[in-house]
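Issue: copy button drops trailing tokens. Both records pasted manually instead:
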Amino acid sequence: MRQFPLFGVLLLVPALALVLLTGCPGTPPPPATSPPVKTGGDKTDAGKAEKITAPTDGTVTGVVHFDGEVPKAVVEAAIANHKTDKEKCMAGGGNHILEQKWLVSAKGGVANVVISLAPAEGKEYDVSAELKAKWEKRQFILDQPFCAYTPHVVTLYAGVQPLLVKNTAAFPHNVKINGGIKNGDFDSGNMAPNSELKPMTFKHDTKPITMQCSLHGWMTGKIVTFQHPYFATTKEDGSFEILDVPSGVELRVFMWHESFEKAKQVGTVTAKAGAKTSIESDKLKIK
């Protein structure tokens, strides 16, 4: 398994980082790189932080809902107008053919929202070797079954959790990543149908990184990395689950969506020992 300094992706926090890519001839240029995004709470001054040593036997859950009139689902125009791969791309239906920024379910659940838990100021996580070993085995799979990255937003435990990139489509795709100074640039070249890349891990970086398919320029994605394992990306119904959370300790809850300039603290949560603790729905609204 290699690290992103060879070819990479990115990392976030509560010191959050995103990923998009560079375009191909004939497609619009990718959005300009945005400034570093910070949420705080990922690290404190060396030697001054109090270690959190509580048992990691809690689970935090919740559902992110859209607050207000739900954005209308919009078919990605570049897919509908593509001369070569239109039929293959449209075959995916559902979210695969939509603009990816706002994917909202019929019940208002919002996909691709990043939820993270940060210690209180003056405290920091003390992640055990055993828990890190678990995360080394929790590969995050990024697939390209039609003409959208699935999922659109990737979250990773920096330096620990591997990212496995697949192409299960019946036609070629590509992944290009601008990893900046810390992680370098990476171009997969054309990925043949039903192929995958060697799993990779990435160094933490607070700067946004871009990911894009140069064969289908509308295909973009973001990778958010953390220096701890207490985060999740919401599913299509807006739900999320964060495992192995220190119980009995008040933690700050941060929420990020690509429409945000930076992550927002939306409240706090204290995980119950050996049980699931749900974050109140009124804290998890987005618009």
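Record 2 (pasted manually too):
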Amino acid sequence: MQNTADTLPMDRLPADQAGGDALVERYRRKFHLSPTYPLTAEMVHRHWDLERRLARELLATKPEERWDAFEQAYTTLYSGCPWLNEAEDDANTRDDDLDFRHFLTLLGGPQDVYEVGSGKARLLRYLARHGYRCVATEVTRERGANWIEQDTNITWKNSDGVHLAQFEPADRYDSVISTHVVEHMHPDDVVTHMTNVRTILKPGGKYILSMPHKYAGPADLSEVFGLDEPVCMHLREYRWGETAAMLRQAGFDRIEAVYVVPMAVRRRLNLHFASRAYFGYVRMVEAFLGRLPLTLNRKLGRVGQLFMFRPEVFVVAHKPK
């Protein structure tokens, strides 16, 4: 498996997407950056050049090199583009209850939860406020621990995100969560990651996984430049079918698709559910979209909410009891 990061020339950008105020505003919206932070097109291009180089380097790594390589890559990224932390405007653009309330239903009552790739741990801080016992993890020390208040019900740990059973005992957690993390992993490590998730889950435990859907992408920096494929730090974006196949290969038996209404509706009606019937529906829609030309299926994928096809793969996978 590969993305196009190792085939697209490093200096190639669509001429009409390469600069100007419109580029800066797309970038600002994409990364939820403060409208008052002084961004320039040169800064956007610096980010582009850095991510393109790092993505190629990560795709070329050997398995035994990856933890160090990924830690170094993300440390390099956030130190080279400090505005990604400095200008982030989450407090003014996000609502934890609207963003995360459905996780309370998907998880069930308070329990032991392990999150892969926690970042600022917004989700875990929300769950901790509702009584969940949470473990936050990150591949790098550049972000993560500094974002977690010391008085919350959260334990901070470091791991490579893949070989979880080397860091945690078997059958330890009720649920494991990863939100928009798997697309950043080396494609060759994804099944290994899922197998390790199954190992650290209790019998009957849940893996709740969400990531951008291939047909609604690209969802990394490539989107800002109008590209059709991810060529930056999303090393691969996935479809429902291949995700389900990998989960079954990793030992999960029951797979449910999650539906959450669009944010505009969610402000009035927070409707959400997970079911195998809905999983069958999204597989059917995906098969139809897959027969269309790339440009058309991406356009339809991006407006999929009109026909209950979310722009992400969002599943609950169950470990056998």
